[in-house]
Amino acid sequence: xxxxxxxxxxxLRTPLRKGDFVLLSSRMKEILRELMTADTPITGxxxxxxxxxxxxxxxxDIKNLDYILNSNGARIIAVISKGYKLEIRDKQLFQAxxxxxxxxxxxxxxxIPKTPEDRVTYLITRFLLSDHYIKLDxxxxxxxxxxxxxxxxxxxxxxxxxxxxxxxxxxxxYGLKVLGEEIKVRFCLSEYVLNRNQQTSSALDxxxxxxxxxTNKEKIQxxxxxxxxxxxxxxxxxxxxxxxxxxxxAHKRIVSGHYAALIHADLDEMQQQxxxxxxxxxxxEVEALYEVTFPQEEIAYIAMHLLGTKMVSQKxxxxxxxxxxxxxxxxxxxxxxxxxQLDLGIEKDEELIFGMSLHLKPAVNRIKYGMNIxxxxxxxxxxxxxxxxEAGIIAGLAITEYTxxxxxxxxxxxxxxxxxxxxxxxxxxxxxxRCLVVCASGLGTAQLIYYRLKSYFGSNLEVVETTEYxxxxxxxxxxxxxxxxxxxxxxxxxxxxxxxNAILKESDLKAIEKFIMHQSNNQTTxxxxxxxxxxxxxxxxxxxxxxxxxxxxxIEKELVDQTFLEAVxxxxxxxxxxxxxxxxxxxxxxxxxxxxxxxxxxxEKPISWNNNSVQLILLLCVKKNSQEDLxxxxxxLGQIIEDKARVQKMVRxxxxxxxxxxxKE
Length: 665
Known about the structure:
Blueprint: E1 6-8, E2 21-23, H1 26-37, H2 44-51, H3 55-70, E3 74-79, E4 83-88, H4 91-107, H5 116-128, H6 136-143, H7 147-162, E5 167-171, E6 175-179, H8 182-194, H9 217-230, H10 237-255, H11 267-271, H12 274-290, H13 296-309, H14 319-322, H15 325-342, H16 350-368, H17 378-384, H18 386-403, H19 409-429, E7 433-438, H20 443-457, E8 461-467, E9 482-485, E10 497-499, H21 506-516, H22 520-524, E11 529-538, H23 543-556, H24 564-574, E12 578-580, E13 582-584, E14 597-609, E15 612-621, H25 631-642, H26 644-650, H27 656-664
Parallel strand pairs: 1-2, 7-8, 7-9, 9-10, 11-14, 13-15
Antiparallel strand pairs: 3-4, 5-6, 12-13, 14-15
């Protein structure tokens, strides 16, 4: 390390030597991260938008980054009309290069944050760890930005801190300083700073930022594992990591003179719990390690972690012995609310009832004691299971209605996992489609259709029976998914009818296959987009302006009433509808309209939407008391959220037909 050379990327003009460490700018690192995770080429305009710079600046960054990568086992290829992609030529050499960047992070940890998101995280950390007032001019100088830019960043900082009941107190001529309960400050440090965007292979191996670097991390983890094993307490890996981080933060704050006062809990009651005894044993070992004394209140908070995250290991058949009646009734109420609004058909799923009951049992303790819990999968849940996440939102609101306790976004994410699993189970359990064959040409033709279908579809289609047309009215169709008929059927039997030729052709089989694979729904998805509600390349500066504009358009067309915008903001308050990749999908907290539709709005330039950049807005309105199967639509929206290349094309189009062509890709 002492002999290593620190190389600045922007001045690099000579090949790297062994032992050199490359200091990439934060923007170049972001470009490299994007290229490494992309399955398809990424356009320069997308990178420019994400980093809030010009395409010319991105081209220069790409040129410099490619120069560096060429000496380190990789290169950046420009794909005509598609963008840039990363090609790794020497995996071992490239891996060594990535490790050198990691070393650089600790070797030179004062790299200046460049993106608004990085600056906001930096500022939050700066305020939370400072005991003094900080002037805006000093912060602007630290970050090499203008005062107007720092003021915009501070607005975002205040919004985030407000979620933790922390405010920024302003004192004339002195600056700003955080004001809030000590435990809330710690929760914010734990959830927003230490755990933000941590992507590791193991939940027990989360790296700590330099200001919390701790050579005793492994020893504390060993203490936790030893004590929970000794006292037969089961915790998830994430819960163990959360407890580890809590203890490290507690030590740092105690040393600097910050003590946590016990809130929302009675210390006498807490001391009677088994978990308090286990926490005391842990603390004794930690005190010996650090040579510092933890007050009783600190022990109580460690006990709360144990109470709020311990897992109950029981078989499903023993649910009556594990789940209290009040929790069971809460889950039943919650699932009825989900069914009422989304009609998912999972209300009676025993595994879901059991899983949610086990989750809510410790969750009630968490919320009772004012604790937060980190959900490292939250972003992936929102992006990949949007319908399950919406059901989680409904569940959270139902729990609040039933108990009066507020469920935060992390808890909602965990509920969505249980709901998503139930939705997948329903797909698996739905089995093959049941088909009735109607034929007027006699038994021979009917049998030919019967066996041709059996041969082509196998277990994917159960051909229940063949019948004549005149007997159809007498047939019980309750368990039939579709009718395959060689003659036209004009009557409405509330069962889909696919008309085929008496001698089945390939096109007939494909039509039936399309139904079985649910692809027919894909053709209806575009119908939810209304051309008269499509607006392209608009000039708006804020989330509020966009929502007000769309609301006015819907009012003008008499599609919504005066309460609609308020319902949209109520949903936004529960959890942001900006999902990353420049996409936001706002919608009212409960269905408000007489039909299901989507309104499109693209912007000339991205705006800030709850600290995410957004340029494509899809306003979703679901029909009141809808019985529609919207799973395909939600899956389509999830695909858009994940598809960077498609979103980049969408924000550039200027007419409805071109946009819909991209939708159908």
